[in-house]
Write a structure and sequence with these properties.
The protein has three helices and seven strands. With 148 residues, the protein is of the alpha+beta class.
């Protein structure tokens, strides 16, 4: 099993970052390679499921994720049948900002051809995930409401 860890400071209050993360209308903005569908409920509710698809080198990948643990404004744990994968997102107040801590444990899916597994297993996946969270940070900060 592979592990990914990232911590990123977002210049926005935790309430805003939490709401932005849970608003699936923004997901394709910060995860442009993924298409999300069949969302069964809100992203802050245990049991909510959704389907995601992406293409890599012409191979389509599709998986279902489920929210298996939530602490409002603090924590979301997603489990996916892709691999499988477990993603944990922690939202920690940091003054007027938020520290987003992401931990993922994943297996490369068995149905992928060996050369794609090798490519993804040599740092590509970590780099791609870091880019996704840098995009999340930039978009979340750009959408912070002005103080009244």
């Amino acid at each position: 099993m592979k592990h990914f860890h990232e911590e990123i400071r977002i210049e926005a209050p935790v309430e805003h970052v939490w709401a932005f993360f849970g608003d699936t209308t923004h997901w394709e903005d910060w995860m442009p390679r993924r298409k999300t569908s069949d969302i069964s409920g809100p992203m802050d509710q245990v049991g909510t499921t959704f389907v995601q698809r992406t293409k890599l080198m012409g191979f389509e990948m599709k998986w279902t994720s489920e929210i298996i643990e939530v602490e409002p404004l603090r924590f979301v744990h997603l489990h996916s049948d892709w691999g499988p994968t477990d993603n944990r997102f922690r939202f920690e107040p940091d003054g007027e900002a938020t520290r987003l801590v992401v931990d993922s444990d994943y297996e490369m899916p068995g149905k992928l051809p060996g050369f794609i597994k090798d490519l993804m297993g040599t740092g590509w996946m970590d780099g791609e995930m870091r880019r996704v969270f840098q995009d999340f940070k930039a978009l979340a900060e750009a959408k912070v409401p002005a103080h009244a």
